[in-house]
Amino acid sequence: MFKTILIDDEPLAISRLKRLLSHYSAVISIIDEAHNGQEGLEKIEAQKPDLIFLDIEMPLMTGFEMLANLSYMPKVIFSTAYDQYAIRAFEENSVDYLLKPIEAERLEKTIEKLKK
Amino acid sequence: MNLEKAPDVSSRTATNNVVIPATENTRPYRRERNSRFRTGFKNAINRLNPQFVLYTFLFALFLIYGLNSILYFSLELLNPTSLEAEQNKAVFLANLTTGFSCFVSLIIFILFIERFLSKNWSKYTILIVFTYCMLMLIRLFQKAFYLIENDGGKYWAHYWKIMSVEYNASSISSHGTLYLVIPMIAVCVIFYNWQRSKDLDRKISEQEYQLLNLEKLKTKAQLNALEARINPHFLYNSLNSITGLIHDNPDKAEEMTIQLSKLFRATTGRSDQSFHSIAEELDIVKSYLSIEQMRFGDRLKYSIHLESGLENIKIPRFLLQPIVENAIKHGISKITEHGIIEVRITKENDLIVFQIHDNGPAFKEDLSGGYGLRSISDKLQLIYGNQATLQIENNDYKSIIIKVPMETLDKMSV
């Protein structure tokens, strides 16, 4: 069971991800959500989740900037609208890189990766 | 130091030249000198076509002959060497009057008669006949002078003697006729030149017209290139948001889809028209903002204010939407809450003022980061020349201000 925080500046994206993850409630337990890098930073340091779903393009602080400032590093699954950050995401040792809109089959593969 | 002389690319003989280091002997090789002479000669020959050679020959001949005759005659007039020379004054006067009558005949013909004739041969025929009549008229006057003037009469007597001298019984009966032929030829030549210059004028104005058309086409093409396309990222993001809405809020998802298709219809349809009314442009802006509103939720509030009476004024398509898009991309998306966009359209004397404000971070000093303001100012320049302005306010009320003249577009037919 992974304690999870969802971090995305678009409320619609978060609500959709919630709905998709509701099929994996045995694996993923959503404990909180954040709407920008700053908020995400605070909540991660405070609650120390096992996993985060992270958007990249956010106001105040981007996803990468937030990761750079973390003292505690959870597992990261990037979920973003742009594919140009894939290589960098790979360097960040993330679990996966999901392109929005997230497809159900693709998410299934990600969850399988997590379970290993 | 070994300096190499660079080949002279402007001269035609460059390909024949050998590059010579300046330190060596600078006299060109003999072979090279000959070839230079030969190509120069060839070039000159090319510029002398046979037609030109013939014209030059004839013209030179007659010009020299004519001028010499004038010179001789004039000298005789000024320093008469004999009584005959004195009497040549009559000839001089006769020539003047003949020339003058030719001139008058030509002018009258071109001004009044020429336009009624359609065929070329008819023009020349009528011209000759008309000139002949004029000359005969003048002859009558000359004869009248002869009859009136007693003292000057001897001059005219002498003139008529010259005109009716018979050189040979078998030759031309009266070379008086020959003296008539010359004015005929002269008026025909002059008329021909006049026709040609008229043709040239027409050709020039035709070319000018075509050039103007080409300019118009080029402007149109440039305008088309600058035409805004829907930003693919925007489309992508919108579809993402719609995906998120479909289950949670189907009505909103439906509305968003409709707004998106409205926006697309505006870019893809009727692209041969570069203009539409302010009301239509605001429709596009409203569609765009409503879509972004769904994406940003409470992070965005917007308002549009249009001064009444300005709804139907024509402006270039997609003048405002890209600026609003900028306001979202570089402004609202960078702040976490309370984003505001304000669009105000007002009238200021003869100008229409568009002001788009957002409360995002200030514009960067060098306006980098793909603001796309360049293409908008290019479009304004193409359409309005220097009459439109684009200002950037980077202070408390951050905004882009565009001013365009009100009247221009109604008169244009782009």
Structure commentary:
The complex is a heterodimer of chains A (116) and B (414). With 116 residues, chain A is an alpha/beta fold. Chain A has one domain: Response regulator (Rossmann fold), CATH 3.40.50. In chain A, 40% of the residues lie in helices and 23% in strands. Chain A contains 5 helices and 5 strands, in the order E-H-E-H-E-H-E-H-E-H. Chain A has a 5-stranded parallel beta sheet. In chain A, helix 3 links the parallel strand 3 and strand 4. Chain A is globular and about 30 Å long. The relative contact order of chain A is 0.19. Chain B has 414 residues and is α+β, with helices and mostly antiparallel strands. Chain B has 3 domains: 36 residues, no CATH class; 117 residues, no CATH class; 185 residues, 2-Layer Sandwich (Heat Shock Protein 90), CATH 3.30.565.10. Chain B is 61% helix and 10% strand. Chain B has 12 helices and 7 strands. In chain B, the strands form 2 sheets. A 5-stranded mixed beta sheet of chain B has the order 2-4-5-7-6, with helices on one face. In chain B, helix 9 packs parallel to helix 10. Chain B is elongated. The interface between A and B is medium-sized, with 18 and 20 residues. Chain B: It holds the Pfam family His_kinase. Chain B: GO terms for molecular function: phosphorelay sensor kinase activity. Chain B: Keywords: Kinase, Membrane, Transferase, Transmembrane, Transmembrane helix.
Layout: helices, strands, pairs:
The complex is a heterodimer of chains A (116) and B (414).
Chain A: E1 2-7, H1 11-21, E2 28-34, H2 37-47, E3 51-54, H3 63-68, E4 75-80, H4 86-91, E5 96-99, H5 104-115
Parallel strand pairs in A: 1-2, 1-3, 3-4, 4-5
Chain B: H1 30-47, H2 50-78, H3 83-113, H4 120-148, H5 153-164, H6 175-226, H7 232-248, H8 250-268, E1 275-277, H9 278-296, E2 300-306, E3 314-316, H10 321-331, E4 339-348, E5 351-358, H11 373-384, E6 389-393, E7 399-405, H12 408-411
